[in-house]
């Protein structure tokens, strides 16, 4: 039961906590570990932030570690440091004829203090008066209730029906990254105990659409401005709702939240479970050039590359009536943004510029920390 206190060490019970190492949620799951324990991470939700889903996964993981190491201290060390690291530290000690228990292993400072911190929290909660603390009394009934969710519904509307602000709703349902809760993916909505009944009553009486948002798959690689036109919304809103940084393009097959059209069905289970946003840096196209060959004319080169002679003159700073020379480099496509190059007979006459740029502690201290915490 004391494992219920572990998120105090991991995240201070903040379901939206994120570490520099990209661990997320109340139980601080790394992306790969989360996937292993069936915590979905896609364009629409991150189950590592889901209170009930992440707790289920954490208990499964801790049980697995306890089975592997046969000791709760080692299981907790593995939860913090990684089971592979603990197993290797045990193997290294075994080769040297040393002990393989928690207090015998060399480990990073954070892991060495992990179990003592946990023990200290247990002591404080068990005997708060001993440490001069007065903990607030919490009534012995669930704080929240899980309400089944079988249809798509806007986050804003769900909050309204529950008598909550959007922020209050998100505090209990932080896995919902977008303004839409998808019935195919979000099996239940967590609501404060008193608000769950309010939601159920208002939901049953609600008339009108439940969802004004839906999911949309990009049919091809698109600039954000192009995608915004296709789904009939402004570019800034599309970026904000789908967390698309500047100077990125949307790759084909990316799943985006966009306005829902009248009569459109709810998002399918497959899309809700697997939708991803794939972005690429929007790199300006490079200018395309050709070398003038014997017999070439400006008009002939223009026809070959489907541009006009006037465009070639502008891109290459040619005067009206000026011809081209064999060996001359011409810009036939300016790229983006458009560029112009001075005429050059040979590359050697051009000036170019080049860019340049230019823990372990002893096991003795572990035992000391353990003893101090126990005392």
Number of strands: 11
Radius of gyration: 31 Å
Class by alpha and beta content:
alpha+beta
- Main beta sheet: strand number and arrangement? 3 strands, antiparallel
So how many helices? 16
- The average pLDDT value, as a whole number, equals 89
Strand content: 5-15%
How much helix is in the residues? 25-40%
SSE order, one letter for each helix or strand: HHHHHHHEEHHEEHEEHHEEHEEHHEH
Within the largest sheet, what's the order of strands? 6-7-9
The low-confidence parts are 337-366
Distance between the termini: 21 Å
**Shape call:** flat
How are the SSEs ordered, and which strands pair?
Layout: H1 6-11, H2 31-36, H3 51-69, H4 72-81, H5 83-95, H6 109-112, H7 114-126, E1 144-148, E2 153-154, H8 155-162, H9 166-172, E3 180-181, E4 188-192, H10 193-205, E5 213-217, E6 222-223, H11 224-231, H12 235-242, E7 248-250, E8 255-259, H13 269-274, E9 279-281, E10 288-291, H14 298-304, H15 309-316, E11 329-333, H16 363-374
Helix pairs in contact: 3-4, 4-5, 7-16, 8-9, 8-10
Can you characterise this structure?
With 375 residues, the chain is α+β, with helices and mostly antiparallel strands. Helix content is 39%, strand content 11%. The protein has 16 helices and eleven strands. The protein has a three-stranded antiparallel beta sheet. It has a two-stranded antiparallel ribbon with strand order 1-4. The chain is flat, with a radius of gyration of 31 Å.
In short:
This protein has 375 residues and is of the alpha+beta class. Helices cover 39% and strands 11% of the residues.
């Amino acid at each position: 039961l004391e494992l219920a206190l572990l998120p105090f060490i991991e995240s201070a019970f903040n379901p939206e906590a994120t570490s520099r190492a990209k661990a997320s949620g109340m139980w601080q799951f790394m992306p790969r570990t989360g996937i292993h324990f069936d915590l979905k991470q896609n364009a629409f939700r991150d189950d590592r932030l889901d209170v009930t889903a992440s707790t289920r996964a954490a208990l499964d993981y801790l049980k697995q570690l306890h089975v592997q190491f046969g000791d709760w201290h080692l299981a907790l060390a593995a939860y913090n440091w990684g089971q592979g690291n603990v197993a290797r530290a045990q193997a290294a000690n075994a080769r040297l004829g040393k002990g393989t228990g928690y207090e015998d292993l060399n480990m990073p400072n954070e892991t060495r203090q992990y179990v003592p911190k946990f023990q200290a929290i247990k002591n404080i909660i068990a005997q708060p008066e001993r440490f001069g603390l007065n903990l607030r009394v919490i009534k012995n009934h669930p704080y929240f209730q899980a309400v089944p969710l079988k249809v798509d519904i806007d986050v804003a509307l769900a909050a309204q029906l529950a008598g909550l602000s959007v922020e209050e709703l998100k505090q209990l349902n932080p896995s919902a990254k977008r303004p839409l809760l998808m019935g195919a993916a979000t099996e239940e909505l967590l609501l404060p105990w008193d608000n769950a009944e309010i939601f159920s009553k208002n939901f049953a009486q609600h008339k009108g659409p439940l969802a004004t948002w839906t999911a949309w798959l990009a049919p091809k690689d698109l600039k954000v401005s192009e995608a915004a036109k296709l789904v009939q919304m402004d570019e800034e809103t599309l970026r904000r709702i789908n967390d698309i940084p500047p100077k990125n393009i949307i790759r084909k097959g990316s799943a985006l939240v966009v306005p829902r059209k009248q009569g459109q069905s709810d998002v399918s289970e497959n899309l809700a479970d697997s939708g991803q946003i794939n972005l690429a840096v929007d790199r300006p196209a490079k200018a395309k050039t050709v070398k003038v060959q014997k017999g070439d004319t400006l008009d002939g080169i223009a026809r070959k590359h489907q541009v006009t002679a006037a465009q070639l003159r502008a891109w290459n700073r040619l005067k009206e009536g000026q011809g081209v020379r064999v060996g001359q480099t011409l810009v036939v496509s300016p790229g983006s943004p458009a560029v112009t190059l001075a005429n050059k007979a040979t590359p050697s006459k051009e000036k170019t510029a080049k860019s340049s740029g230019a823990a372990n502690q002893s096991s003795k201290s572990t035992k000391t920390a353990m003893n101090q915490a126990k005392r």
